[in-house]
Design brief:
With about 280 residues, this protein is of the alpha/beta class. It has 6 helices and 17 strands. The strands form 3 sheets. A 7-stranded mixed sheet has the order 1-2-3-4-5-6-7, with helices on one face. Bound molecules: zinc ion. Zinc ion binds near residues 65 and 160.
Length: about 280
């Protein structure tokens, strides 16, 4: 079976690349290890993890979107951590089963995967595991995951989803930001195009930026995983401008993204996004 691609970010941190569709990360401390996100559930990410570490594993979710939580079925006997505001995927109107996995390959595969697309379809699990709901332990602002001489502090950063969490790894000066911050952020369209969600996201950006002296790089959920933290300032500039009315984006369609988009510096924000 086609295996996930693994690359080292530093001595104790690995990127697990799920076929260029989405990233998961494995972190080791002295005592325990953590898997941040689980991919969409294609192939055998659990085997991949076991080849890297045999330490006790915590499974941490940056958010419950199915491309990040779709692999939790591999880890149901382990402690899974998530913010309860992301509790139900009913919120997103999509189920995390093979219907989703197929749709994800169909819509993202041709643009992102550089091999034969039929190889991805062959990784769809036979027993159609559904990760729409699962048991988890709630994490919130200030929750600490202790890996032994390496801790992760949870920062609740609603915007992309209500329960999005960033994980601050002070020892390695990294912030694992999931889809809260990456190269192209999606905020769903709001009724009446209200700016409420932009304000929520703006506040999350400011909250992250308060920790600015404690990390150098962002480790993100899609694509090349390492991003300069200065992009946060670009996003703050955008949200500031949208909220004050001094900036306005325009409607575009690009791949699976459809909605109002605005760009500044290295940042791209889809802020009234339909899909
Ligand atoms: Zn997401």
């Amino acid at each position: 079976m086609l295996a996930h691609q693994v690359e080292k970010i530093n001595e104790s941190t690995w990127r697990i690349n799920e076929f260029n569709l989405v990233n998961a990360f494995l972190l080791e401390g002295k005592k325990n290890s953590a898997l941040i996100d689980t991919g969409c559930g294609l192939g055998e990410i659990d085997k991949c993890v076991k080849e890297i570490t045999d330490k006790m594993l915590y499974v941490l979710l940056t958010h419950s979107h199915p491309d990040h939580a779709g692999g939790v079925y591999h880890f149901k006997s382990l402690p899974i951590y998530m913010n309860s505001d992301d509790d139900s995927l009913k919120l997103w109107g999509m189920r995390t089963d093979n219907g989703f996995r197929r749709m994800y390959i169909e819509t993202r595969g041709p643009r992102l995967y550089d091999g034969e697309i039929r190889n991805l379809y062959s990784l769809i699990p036979n027993d159609n595991p559904d990760c729409t709901s699962f048991d988890y332990i709630n994490i919130d602002d200030g929750s600490i995951i202790d890996l032994g001489e390496r801790t992760l502090e949870c920062i609740h950063t609603p915007g992309h989803t209500d329960g999005s969490i960033c994980f601050l790894d002070r020892k390695n000066r990294l912030l694992f930001s999931g889809d809260t911050i990456n190269r192209s952020i999606i905020l769903m369209r709001q009724p009446d195009n209200s700016t409420k969600l932009i304000k929520i996201f703006h506040d999350s950006l400011l909250k992250i930026w308060k920790h600015e002296k404690e990390f150098d790089s962002l480790i993100i959920g899609h694509g090349n995983p390492i991003l300069e933290k200065s992009i946060i300032k670009d996003y703050i500039k955008i949200t500031d401008g949208l909220l004050s009315g001094s900036l306005r984006g325009s409607y575009e369609e690009s791949g699976f993204r459809k909605g109002d988009v605005i760009r500044h510096g290295n940042a791209e924000l889809w802020y009234q996004c339909d899909s």
